[in-house]
Amino acid sequence: MYCYKCKKKFYLKRGFLNLFDTKSKYICDKCLNEQPISLRFDEITLDVGIIKVVSLFDTIFKVDLKPYVLEINQIFNFFYKKYRDHSIVLLDHLALTYFNLELLSLWVEMFEKPLLIICGVLRK
After folding, report:
1. 20 to 30 A Cα–Cα from 37, which one of 3, 14, 68, 70?
2. 5 near 64, Cβ under 8 Å?
3. Which residues have C-beta within 8 Å of that of residue 20, sequence separation ≥ 6?
4. CA 95 → CA 22, 37, 53, 115, distances in Å?
5. Quick check: helix, strand or coil at residue 2?
6. What three-state secondary structure class fits 9?
């Protein structure tokens, strides 16, 4: 397999019992250890409702989320099961500007549900 981040070839260790199982992994262990996922949960209260933001990385730079597809899938499924009454949005990055907060408050007001945003990088 090829790592989507460093473009190098890597191998998955398999034993006799899982020799013919199909496993897909898009990032090597070296790249995963260099920039691991560290979840940060922020809650923003507005006049019309609540916005919950889960950011995946603590960096200030934009991160390519393509290598982390399997990890993001597990995180999304966890939050989908836990917050079924929320509207869930998945974004690459989110900058908390005045204009974006007005748009998000409009979203909450339109759908009359709390909003959960899962984003790669959160900029305040």
Report:
1. 14
2. yes
3. none
4. 38, 19, 11, 16
5. strand
6. strand
Tokens of 116: 């959960």
- State the pLDDT confidence band at 100, using cuts at 50, 70 and 90: very high
Structure-block tokens of residue 55: 């950011």
Tokens of 37: 């996922």
Give the tens place of pLDDT for each residue, 76-93: 999 999 999 999 999 998
Q: Where are the beta strands (DSSP E) in the chain?
A: 40-45, 50-57, 87-95, 115-123
SS3 69: helix
How many other C-beta atoms lie within 10 A of the C-beta of residue 104? Answer: 21
